[in-house]
Amino acid sequence: MDALKQELKERIINALNLEDISIDDIQDNDPLFGDGLGLDSIDALELIVLLDKEYGIKLADPKQGKEIFQSVETMAQFVAANRTK
């Protein structure tokens, strides 16, 4: 699971062009939106695309994103349980 979390952090940084942030800056349980990384709704769409492209996960209901994208920890758990790639 730790390897998956590191991979997700790298992919989030690359997909969202977070040039000023390193993997070490993102804690597993930090919120991705709001006070954490400060991501917005456009970033959420990018994360949905990332899940589809990299892990073969299609979100049927975009509202699922609110639960899935709470933190790297919640993303990793969801990817581990649902990935097809």
TrEMBL record:
Ranges where the Carrier domain occurs = 4-83
What are the entry keywords?
Phosphopantetheine, Phosphoprotein
The superkingdom of the source organism is Bacteria
The record, for Pfam families, names: PP-binding (PF00550)
Task: Write down the InterPro entries for this protein, in alphabetical order.
Answer: ACP-like_sf, PP-bd_ACP, Ppantetheine_attach_site
From the UniProt record, list the coiled-coil ranges. none
Recorded protein name is Acyl carrier protein
Q: Which organism is it from?
A: Paenimyroides viscosum
Taxonomy of origin reads: Bacteria, Pseudomonadati, Bacteroidota, Flavobacteriia, Flavobacteriales
